[in-house]
What does this fold into?
Amino acid sequence: MLRSPLTLAACLLLSLVFAASAETPLPPGVKRVPVTLAGGFETNPVDHGRPVILIASALGVAPEVFRETFTHVHPAGPGSGGPTREEAQKNKKALMDGLGKFGVTNDRLDTVSNYYRYPPGPGGRWKTKDASANALVKDGKIVGFEVVDHGSGYTSEPTVTVPGVDAPASFKVKLAYTKEFDTNGSIQSIAVEKK
It folds into this structure.
């Protein structure tokens, strides 16, 4: 029976979607062990708790550029209820004067600022999505890692532990910073740290 090209294309697409969603088979003797990821939201002390690496990446500028520009901003003090309208306008002008020459638009600055704004109340944090990963273990030893969900919003390397496995002292987590919110501050890879 002959099928139309559209039907063949649809069949191929369905098989690719199924293959991509299926769990990758492992070599004999290798098992997956879910890892525990903790922390990863520490900021550079010079940034006073601001996730500058995320903000700068989302704006497409180097963190140093954002830091220098922000030195011209005068935030309202704690408990002040926020800046006055005049203060807010001066702060926005200072930011646009410094960032506009790098192609940052007012709309993009507003979008990024609002996305990484702290929620009100104590203990708040910018928007994040937890990552998840598995250690690949053979004969009780870690032979590799697979990142299941890359997460987002990490500003520093999270601590990796592998429950029930006699693991080396430390792991190297590689983070990726991009302009896209869902991949900015994501875990790109995890590896056993070389000594």
Residues 1-22 have pLDDT under 50 and may be disordered.
